[in-house]
Amino acid sequence: TQYKPDYNEAMTKNKASVQKSFTSGADAENITKINTAIHHLGTLQELADALDSGNSPAINKVVNFVKTQMGHDEVTNVDLAKIAVGDELMKAFKGSGSSEAEAEAWRAQFNANKSVKGMRGAIKTAVDLLHGRSTEVNEKWKRGMDTEEDFKNLISPSAQTVLNRLSSGSTVPVISTKEEYDALQPGQTYI
Prior knowledge:
Distance between the termini: 66 Å
Oligomer: single chain
Structural class: mainly alpha
Shape: elongated
Number of strands: 0
Low-confidence stretches: none
């Protein structure tokens, strides 16, 4: 204790436990789930943009049915991606003990018949929720390690690239009413 007067055996053991959890334990798994969900959301956004939906879910339902019947893969691709997104979001927020009904509740938010604005809104909300989750995971690291330093690469560089792409896409407003159109700034880009 004279070599290091501020040495605390209990804190040293706690830090070792936290470090293990963040590198190979439950927290490491959650970080992987968060990053995977971000990648899946990026894929879903690309596929939803390729679907080229209109602003009416009722009309989109008919158009998407016809597209599917004619062999187009856009709707099927969105449906497949929404399964992956729903499952990964459920895992990121609930862990491995979640039910099929909970996964389905997540999936339902990414229906291929949604309007462009509806789909982008659902994806943006999911990204915002993941941001909150990752922020709290990082705070857990800081508390456990008794530091102000962030956990390095909590959001992987490739997931950060996806987030940057999603963020830049979400700043372009989707206009569906005259009031929204009238509120635009002169020369502002919109969909």
